[in-house]
Design brief:
With 269 residues, the chain is of the alpha/beta class. It has one domain: Purple Acid Phosphatase, chain A, domain 2 (4-Layer Sandwich). β10 and β11 form a beta hairpin. The protein starts with a strand and ends in a 17-residue tail after the last strand.
Length: 269
């Protein structure tokens, strides 16, 4: 199984939540960890260093991609000339791959220096990622990690869907991609993109909540997703009373619960 984290925002992390996450990893032993962006709050070296030390302490392979908070916001010179300098120093290339016993993970960088929240996917990235998908080993489940989501709950959030996302979804799905791992909106939710994007097979848009930061959104507590080899997605929330993460619900398949509809979709996911 995979541990899917997002929006850690180191610089605003909570010690008790970090310790609870360490205990969960030690107990459940996921095969790998994916962090879908916003490792830091303000892209400062100390924040990247703390994030790296924390992920190393979990003693599991991990794949990370940058989020919009992982490039400088106020240092405009550095933002324009070398926006990913600190990310690369601590985590290496912004786009990498990771193979686990059950999954083949591909990182895609959707962050641009030009806009602090809205991302971008280029035609070259669409093609290059499609080529990577052609070489997924037999029996592995291909998943793509990228910070911006492909579907949103609220129409006012649609501006943060990266440019060329529809083209990317169709191209990558045609090459076998089974799902996308996201963050950005701090909301644990899963959409099936097959109807929205007119796909012949089910492709999941899996969004994680706030990992360890105090920057909670939409009334959700700190949480993460667990993804199993049958592509079930289980949400775990931090309990303030127990100082531990607890299994809350299965986000996918839906278990008969009401599920919010992505903006622009003709039917519920």
């Amino acid at each position: 199984m995979l541990l899917h984290l997002s929006d850690l925002h180191f610089g605003t992390e909570q010690h008790t939540v970090c310790e609870a996450l360490k205990r969960w990893v030690s107990e459940h032993q996921p095969e790998a960890i994916v962090v879908s962006g916003d490792l830091t709050q303000r892209a400062r070296s100390q924040q990247f260093d703390t994030a790296r030390r924390f992920l190393d302490s979990l003693q599991k392979p991990f794949l990370v991609v940058p989020g919009n908070h992982d490039i400088p916001m106020f240092d405009l010179g550095k933002r324009w000339l070398s926006p990913f300098e600190s990310f690369v120093r601590y985590f290496g290339p912004v786009e990498t791959t990771l193979e686990t016993p059950h999954f083949y993970l591909i990182g895609v960088n959707s962050i641009t220096r030009l806009n602090h929240t809205q991302g971008s996917i280029s035609p070259l990235q669409i093609w290059q990622t499609g080529e990577r998908l052609k070489h997924v080993p037999a029996g592995k489940i291909p998943l793509i990690a990228v910070h911006q989501p492909f579907a949103v709950i609220d129409p006012e959030d649609a501006d943060d869907i990266a440019s060329l996302m529809p083209q990317a979804v169709k191209h990558w799905a045609s090459h076998g991609c089974r799902g996308f791992l996201h963050g950005h909106f701090h909301s644990p939710v899963v959409f099936d993109l097959s109807k929205k994007s007119h796909l012949s097979t089910s492709v999941l848009d899996i969004q994680a909540g706030t990992g360890v930061s105090r920057r909670l959104r939409r009334g959700y507590p700190n949480s993460f997703n667990v993804i199993t080899p049958d592509l079930s997605v289980i949400r775990w929330d931090f309990s303030v009373e127990k100082l531990a993460f607890e299994r809350v619900m299965q986000l996918w398949p839906l278990e008969g619960r009401f599920h919010e509809q992505p903006m622009g979709s003709p039917s519920a996911a």
